[in-house]
Amino acid sequence: MKFFLDTANVDQIKRINDLGLCDGVTTNPSLINKEGRDFKEVVTEIASFVDGPISAEVTSYDYENMVKEARYIATWADNIVVKIPMTEDGLKAVNTLSKEGIKTNCTLIFSVSQGLMAAKAGATYISPFVGRIDDMGEDGIRLIRELREVLDIYGLESEIIAASIRTNKHLEGSALAGAHIATIPGSIFEKLWSHPLTDAGIASFKKDWEAFENRGK
Ligand code: G3P
């Protein structure tokens, strides 16, 4: 499974990239707004040091302008993927862009039908939002499992990016359900590699080693 970072924070991305755990990055208008930096500047900076796809989202919602924006964003770097919202105009844009060889990430997927349509339209990636589905009292992981099954049955090539990942269970469930990728906020990574029993184990090894070194003193 690949790990993408769901953030536009360059420091966070560098930290995880240094661990060899960053296979790509996804951004969206909210994440760009959070950084308060110029959109193109921050995306090109990230694209310059991450060896993997970087998703940058269009901010128009009509077909003509989405395609225009996407063509421009795609020129920023070789590893750019353009994020397109899951709407009728979005599907049309995905179809046009995929024929031009521009990689797309169809975002805001909340059902199997939406994912199937985006995949058939030619999306390189489809992004179901696990956490937000759970927020509605439904099962985000089940959607990942069903999407993977449908893609496999029909031999569709889109890759599933499990998005809106907020907990260890979201990540582990998405991995077991067959998501090709999970896009994870920088702040969640720490929770993924930590465990209270690891900390307790280290504390007890340290204590015992000190006792060993002090023997006979
Ligand atoms: O990748 C989508 C993500 O940024 C949304 O996360 O936690 O706002 O639902 P969240």
Sequence-ordered SSE layout with sheet pairings:
Elements: E1 2-6, H1 10-17, E2 24-26, H2 29-35, H3 39-49, E3 54-57, H4 63-73, E4 80-85, H5 88-99, E5 104-109, H6 112-121, E6 125-128, H7 130-135, H8 140-154, E7 159-162, H9 168-176, E8 181-184, H10 186-193, H11 196-213
Parallel strand pairs: 1-2, 1-8, 2-3, 3-4, 4-5, 5-6, 6-7, 7-8
Bound molecules: SN-glycerol-3-phosphate.
In short:
The chain is an alpha/beta fold and 217 residues long. It has helices at residues 10-17, 29-35, 39-49, 63-73, 88-99, 112-121, 130-135, 140-154, 168-176, 186-193, 196-213; strands at 2-6, 24-26, 54-57, 80-85, 104-109, 125-128, 159-162, 181-184.
- Most strands sheet: 8 strands, parallel, barrel
Helix content: 40-55%
Distance between the termini: 51 Å
Approximate shape? globular
Gyration radius, rounded? 20 Å
Report the count of strand segments. Answer: 8
The class by helix and strand makeup works out as alpha/beta
What's the arrangement of strands in the largest beta sheet?
1-2-3-4-5-6-7-8
- The multimeric state of the shown protein is single chain
Strand content: 15-25%
The H/E string reads: EHEHHEHEHEHEHHEHEHH
Q: What low-confidence regions span 5 or more consecutive residues with pLDDT below 50?
A: none
Number of helices: 11
Describe this entry's structure for a reader.
The protein has 217 residues and is α/β, with parallel strands linked by helices. Helix content is 53%, strand content 17%. It has an eight-stranded parallel barrel, surrounded by seven helices. Strand 7, helix 9 and strand 8 form a beta-alpha-beta unit. The radius of gyration is 20 Å and the shape is globular. The N and C termini lie far apart (51 Å). The structure holds SN-glycerol-3-phosphate (G3P). The site of SN-glycerol-3-phosphate has 10 residues, from helix 7.
